[in-house]
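USER: Please consider what follows.
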Amino acid sequence: MSFKVVIVPRAVIINYGVGNLFSIKRSLERAGFNVTISSDKRGLSSIDAIVLPGVGNFGAGAENIKRIRNNLLELIEEGIPVLGVCLGMQLLFEESEESSGAGLSVLSGKVIKLPSSVRIPHMGWNTLKDIKSSDILDGISEEDHFYFAHSYYAVPANKDIIVAKTEYGVKFASVIAQKNIFGVQFHPEKSGKPGEQLIKNFLKIVKG
């Protein structure tokens, strides 16, 4: 009798003093990840994926992530898949109009404020537009709704990494993908079945 070996990927959620940690932890676990939450480099050993959660201020996040910044950059450079969620996506870039402080700068570009012509923050359900073929969006269409809660958005220097946009006063990058780096401006853990699908897609990417 033969047995199939089931490999459960280990994901670490980076606790940098902001973010809705436990709801995204549950969402990752439902998809099939073994999840830990860590705020120091000891929690970054023998992992298969990194998740940067998202609620809060860019400057505070940038300051708090300094203590493990170099460790994160090394892992990302090694090819460990990383998923940035909302603020976590913004921190993948260089800087933000919201406050001073340097992001991880693994992606070139900056973060700017939504236009004053719309109510800020952008809060609630919205859809994706201009979807490009990408593993992170497998099975997701322009009819699916995702939950947003933000006042700022990323402007990538390289437009080719934008795999979906969302319209709210302006069309902005709501999903980005470059090699092992992924980011979503919405909250998949609050987005029902479409959000679950995106996290399952991330699991498939991690498993290779």
In short: The chain is about 25% helix and 30% strand.
